[in-house]
Design brief:
There is one protein chain. The chain is of the alpha+beta class. Helices cover 19% and strands 11% of the residues. The chain is built from four helices and six strands; from the N terminus they run βαββαβαββα. The chain has helices at residues 14-18, 55-59, 77-85, 115-119; strands spanning 3-5, 24-25, 39-40, 66-68, 93-94, 98-99. Strand 5 (93-94) and strand 6 form a beta hairpin. The two termini are 19 Å apart.
């Protein structure tokens, strides 16, 4: 994944249509049972690595609503699977291929983002 939407989100859904990976859905379409905010599907987020800034951040009107999360790569497989079990994420499961975990479906990420910023869920700033 790479970005998460925080409780600063005002649910304007500006980011939903901007996401080139279709990784963002409104709270109403969230796979989480009791979603309060716009949701980023971790197994789909690509951090918009080919752009200057993530597109969701570029259109978000609310400071602090979008923060860094851990890269969606094999090294953080256990992290994402645990958060899936806790209900923080709901990672898609394919009927034949199983769960789209970082171990079998890694995503690109911005290597320039400091890992401590990811650990701290630091809001995006550019």
């Amino acid at each position: 994944m790479a970005v998460i939407i925080t409780d600063e989100c005002i649910n304007c859904d500006a980011c939903v249509d901007e996401c080139p990976a279709t990784a963002i859905v409104s709270a109403d379409d969230s796979p989480l049972a009791e979603a309060e905010f716009t949701y980023v599907k971790p197994e789909k987020c690509i951090e918009c690595v080919d752009c200057l800034v993530p597109k969701c951040f570029d259109v978000c009107p609310t400071p602090g609503a979008i923060a860094w999360d851990m890269p969606y790569i094999q090294e953080y497989d256990e992290y994402y699977l645990q958060r899936d079990e806790e209900g923080i994420y709901k990672i898609r499961v394919h009927k034949k291929n199983g769960i789209y975990s970082p171990a079998n479906q890694p995503r690109p990420f911005r290597e320039v983002v400091d890992m401590q910023d990811r650990v701290d869920y630091k809001p995006l700033e550019f």
